[in-house]
Amino acid sequence: MQENNSVTEFILLGLTQDPMKKKMVFVIFLIFYLGTVVGNLLIMVTIKSSRTLGSPMYFFLFYLSLADSCLSTSTAPRLIVDSLSATKTISYNECMTQVFALHFFGTMEVFVLILMAIDRYVAICKPLHYATIMRRQVCIILIVIAWLGAFIHSITEIILALRLPFCGPNLIDHYCCDLQPLLKLACMDTYLINLEWVSNSGSVCTGSFVTLMISYIVILHSLRNHSAEGRKKALSTCISHIIVVVLFFGPCIFIYSRPPTTFSMDKMVSVFYTIGTPFLNPFIYTLRNAEVKNAMRKLWHIKITSESKR
C-alpha cells in the first residue's frame, strides 16, 4: 500500500510547541516511563520469585504488568526523545509498527483485566470449585487466547491503517501514530474506514468495560454472604481492580467510541491511558495488596542478606 503513497515519513507535532513546556514534558514523562518500567518489572520479578504469589490472580497480574510496560514503551520513549529533538520525523513503516504495538498491548491489557475479573468472580462466587476451575493449565490457555485476541484485533487495525493513501500533508497533530490522527491526513473519503475503526476498537473498549463493571457488581453483591474478614479482603482486591478498570477504560472509550471529531484534550486523554495508567498500576496493586508488599520485603531482605555475605 505504501507504493501508492507520496508520503514516506510523518512529522509528529507532540504535546506542545513551547520550548519551556517541551523541557517539562521531557522531565515529567522520563520520570513516568522509568517509574512504569521499574515498578512493573519489580512486580513481575516479585511474582516469579515468591512462592506465596502462585495463585491465578498473581499469574494474571504478571501479564498485566508486562502489558503495561510494553504499552508504555510503544509510545513514551519517542515522546521523550521528540520533546528535545528539532525534527520529530517518523518513517511510514515505523508509524505503522507503532499503530500495531499500541493496539496489541492495549488490547492485551483489556483481555488480562477481563481474566482478572473472571478469577475474582470464581474465587468469591464459586470458592469451593476455585481450585478446579482456575487450574494452572486453564490459566495458561486463557492467557494464550488473550494474546491471540490482541493479535487479531491489532491485525485488523493495521489493515485499516495500510488502506489509507497519504498524498500530503504529513503533519500528525499527536505524539504517536494512531488511526484517529492518521485518518485526518488520508487523501480519500474515510467515512467507512472510521466506521470500521469505531466498530472494532470502540466495541472492544465499551463492551469490555460494561462486562467488567457488571461482573464486579455481581461480585460485590455476593460479598454480603461472606464473613467480615473475608469481605474486607475481597473488597480491597476488587476495589483495586475497579480503580484500574475505570482509569484505563474511561479514556479509551472517550477516544475510540465516538465519531471522527477532534477535541483539544485528545492528546492528554491518550497520554493518560498509554503512559499514566501503566505508571499508576504498580502503586495501586502494591499499596493496596499486603501479600505483594510482604513478598517484596522478603525479596529485598534476601537480596540484602546475599549481598552482605559476599
TrEMBL record:
Keywords: Cell membrane, G-protein coupled receptor, Membrane, Olfaction, Receptor, Sensory transduction, Transducer, Transmembrane, Transmembrane helix
InterPro entries associated with the record: GPCR_Rhodpsn, GPCR_Rhodpsn_7TM, Olfact_rcpt, Olfactory_Receptors
Keyword flag Transmembrane helix: yes
Lineage top rank: taxon: Eukaryota
Protein purpose: Putative odorant or sperm cell receptor.
PROSITE patterns: G_PROTEIN_RECEP_F1_1, G_PROTEIN_RECEP_F1_2
Protein name per the record: Olfactory receptor
One of the record's GO cellular component terms: plasma membrane
Homology family: Belongs to the G-protein coupled receptor 1 family.
